[in-house]
Amino acid sequence: MSGTPFxxxxxxxxxxxxxxxxxxxxxxxxxxxxxxxxxxxxxxxGPTIFGALYPEWQAALFPSVGNVAxxxxxxxxxxxxxxxxxxxxxxDLRSLRRHGLSALLIGTIxxxxxxxxxxxxxxxxxxxFPVPDETLRLPLALxxxxxxxxxxxxxxxxxxLDLGLMKDKLGTILMAATVVDxxxxxxxxxxxxxxxxxxxxxxxxxxxxxxxxxxxxxxxTVFVFFLVTMALGRWFATPLLRRAxxxxxxxSGFIGxxxxxxxxSAAASExxxxxAFLGPFLLGIALAPTTAEREEAYGVMEHFVLSFFVPIYFxxxxxxxxxxxxxxxxxxxVILVTACVSKxxxxxxxxxxxxxxxxxxWAVGCGMNARGATGIILAGVGxxxxxxxxxxxxxxxxxxxxxxxxxxxxxxxxLAAHGATSExxxxxxxxxxxxx
Length: 436
Prior knowledge:
Shape: globular
Structural class: mainly alpha
Distance between the termini: 63 Å
Oligomer: single chain
Radius of gyration: 22 Å
Strand content: under 5%
Helix content: over 70%
Largest sheet: none
Number of strands: 0
Order of helices and strands: HHHHHHHHHHHHHHHHH
């Protein structure tokens, strides 16, 4: 990269950071997740606003092709890998055992129903979800289903903290339920992204059959990859990091070794026909910190990821599409209504089966309905891979933003109407839990 392209790259990244951090700050002051502001910053810098007012400047600062675009996109993709590694570090598989049937029901039913409904909608409304070839309809349908099934763990955690319920039974059950949601959603997305190209290879019935066979092969690949990653994380990566702790500078040597493991896991995931993000995500789950020392080291890494990579990643999501010219009201309404109805009702029903009362169950449904940052990531990966077009991308991003903004007020409304306090969830064990 010569001098002038580097200046363009540096100024562009700096503008993305300034806009992302500034808009994120405004959203936090409005008691909304910072990611909403970062996404808004991208819309401001992208073709929707800046590009409409000053198209030549916008194209010069944020070119879509060439060396600058390639380096910027590579930096952003690298950031997504590290972000998903930190997401995996927050997932505790042991929480499913601790919180029993309630968490498992909410996580499983609240994921399966939106997944099935979202998949069915693509087949029932083909005019709204056109594909160049019918062999691509199944990957598109599964992608929409996975996007609707997703719940935003960070958004839900923020709401529970605001309500003072994060450490109580309701909070811990909901956070455990998102473990199931995350595992199913990200794994299915990795399969769809890895296999979408197979559907594009041909247009015959034989090609479609091969695509479906490849899909089931992808399910088996993800299952095996999950088991192997968990085993290697426990028996190889963890001892390696312990050795790095003793032999190398602390915490730089430890963090450097963790970064190498993230890159290797991403390469392995891509090599086996899955999307690169699945490897770091599963590695994070396998390496979830068990000591305060390791948690401190990962915290240093997480601070840099959240301060640099995450803002520019979510700002970049607004640079890719024009949210005015590529806005399709019919697609937006179908996706938004389907997402809300399927997620809220399924999570409500699961919570009722798990032993929660009606108003608390409605609060659970509204909390699980938030798509947040993960919903935007899903949409971005789908657009980049060519599984969805810009109309669907805009609709999915708007759905993620709207459901995230709805979740907190609705959850607080139901719990306040119920007179819920942190003490109200400490008295009796819920379904699947043993009495204290």
